[in-house]
Records
---
Amino acid sequence: MNDLPDETTILAWARLVLAARSVLGAVEADLKAAGFPPLGWYDVALEVRRAGRAMRPVEIEEQLLIPQSNVSRLLDRMVAAGYLSRQPCADDRRGFELNLTLAGHDLLAKMWPTYRDLIQRHVGGKLQPGEAETLAAALGRLLD
Amino acid sequence: MNDLPDETTILAWARLVLAARSVLGAVEADLKAAGFPPLGWYDVALEVRRAGRAMRPVEIEEQLLIPQSNVSRLLDRMVAAGYLSRQPCADDRRGFELNLTLAGHDLLAKMWPTYRDLIQRHVGGKLQPGEAETLAAALGRLLD
DNA sequence: TAGTTTTAAATGCACATGCATCTTTTTTCA
DNA sequence: TGAAAAAAGATGCATGTGCATTTAAAACTA
């Protein structure tokens, strides 16, 4: 239970940090240049749409691994911008229910074509055939 | 030049963002709990030690993919903490030369055993045999 | 060489984040 | 039930970040 990482593991870790920073930086910059809000907004909106029902802030927290206080204020901004509605939760008076507004659905629809191209440019296009598969598998393990 | 990412690529991208956030968050939290400075400090110190010579701030920028103004202030903090020295550059009067102090070398030495264990716990220990290799390879492509 | 352009680095300012704490409500369990 | 513990969310405060601008020096270029 206290063994040491081998050189390859250390390399993978170093590259994980750098690659995420690099690609995320590029995607965020390109999204902003195209006039869109930060990626985090898309992530939240997508999460809510995928759920297909009202979501609680605490669920956003867990799904996106964002600290609670950051979620709270990110939701503030998105509600203020009109992409989300936040209403008191019926069966739990501590909480709130989040729903996508029409503008929120629209944001997803408008951003996706650009975002999709950016994923291809900064990720897909750089990988060899089959590498996306092994990359996704390995990253999946890190999330368990 | 405008093809679309396949589902696997999109999954790899999503997991890249989440896995980096997850592992980085865990490592940073554990380092802090052990009384150490943020990982960025280690990265800078390691970069300078690896160079084996005085480094310029702009080199740190390029190697670590950190925005210029952030580098400037990160160096401020590390100099203030006594881990780095920053002195005017002889042959380029716009710039500065960075060197590790004794305390800086010491920081690397003191942090490494803990950091190394964290890499094993949060990365190495979660991967299947051989997976670190393919992970490092795929991430390397994203950095080109 | 003089004038323009590019580069290195710092900084002011607005905004985002991390952390601890607080309030309210729900859950647990004795 | 009733008290203690845990959970949801907001918020104050200090700190970090992003962005644009500024200063100074170096590199081009005509």
---
Amino acid sequence: MAVKEKRVRRKPEEARALILDAAEKSMVADGPAGIRLQDVAKAAGVSHPTILHHFGSREGLVRALNTRTLEDFRAALLANMKATTGNGDDGIALSFAMYRNGLAQRMLWHLQANEDPKGRLDIFDSIVDALHELRKNFARPGHEPDIADTRNVVHMVTVAALGDALIGSRLRQAGEKEREAGAAFEKWFSDLITLFMTAKA
Amino acid sequence: MAVKEKRVRRKPEEARALILDAAEKSMVADGPAGIRLQDVAKAAGVSHPTILHHFGSREGLVRALNTRTLEDFRAALLANMKATTGNGDDGIALSFAMYRNGLAQRMLWHLQANEDPKGRLDIFDSIVDALHELRKNFARPGHEPDIADTRNVVHMVTVAALGDALIGSRLRQAGEKEREAGAAFEKWFSDLITLFMTAKA
DNA sequence: ACAACTACCTACAGTATTGTCAACAGTGAG
DNA sequence: CTCACTGTTGACAATACTGTAGGTAGTTGT
């Protein structure tokens, strides 16, 4: 017969993180509507009332999930900006990399849940500003680069990286290894932007 | 007191389409997991057993929804290719336009539901081929354009159009009118590709 | 050691959701 | 007109899901 497990008692933050990790998988796979407390509980190794204890309600869990998604997104963006030294190449690669692990899907749900469109816009504004400063350094003397171009580049990189994270692997050729084919596209994309930047410098 | 409505009797295809239209809204908003027969029934103006009569089960409804999504997607792509005369500009605009009305979200769910990655790949192969023929016509004499470039362009346009359909409006500046800002980006994007194409011709 | 605190659990209640059934009612063929 | 066919429905059954209640058991501070 089964030996009775000693009951574990975690620190609240630990338990919350454990549960959020499990819930995140449901979220990415099926969206917020697909989250079942029983399923999440089983995946996290707790009973479902424990989830309610920590998050108050199913709704509270979903809210916490979306909050963490936004935090992850901001963190990924900031890390991205810090790591980008200036040559541009790594900025593209990082933009594509940051969406891995379902962050693309999660952000989609976050945006759908929060009709309020502000808070994330200023992040993009600051990215545009930072990139524009970089462009000024590479511009030919006496030539001011167009801010609209900078904005469009950031917009393009953002939507392309998101789109690639979501469906990129489905578009690659049958025989290709995902890893290499993805990297090849990123390289090509990066070169394209370099081409554009120098042409417009 | 409420007058008793005369019971309507539709043709099967008509009823199915009516129900699918209603279910599609739930699908786009909340994903397949968010579909509730009662909700769909109310939205479609039928009782929920009617849905089961036509689709067998909830699962059957979702399958029918995904099937129709793929059909819509193929139709949109084909219409897109036919309408593209050759200058390239309209191809971009159409690529962005075809994802409107939630087709982007729906395709995402379709892909997630169908692990099988083939059937859609050949569509893209034929698009790549078609575009490559076009490129050959504009190449300088004796110069063969690189097929990898063509593939990458198609890949980029596809992921960018999808990404823009999903989150584009959230990235635009606060004051901008969605319609115009979107069109401006499409124009800029189109010019970028033209720039690249001529540089590589 | 013990007392307060609270993370955790089992059992249960109430509601929501899918699916079944039998009957009803348009529709078209003969 | 009559009848077979089937789209449609309300009522019901079975299950799934969220949330509550009350008690158990680690942990921490005194």
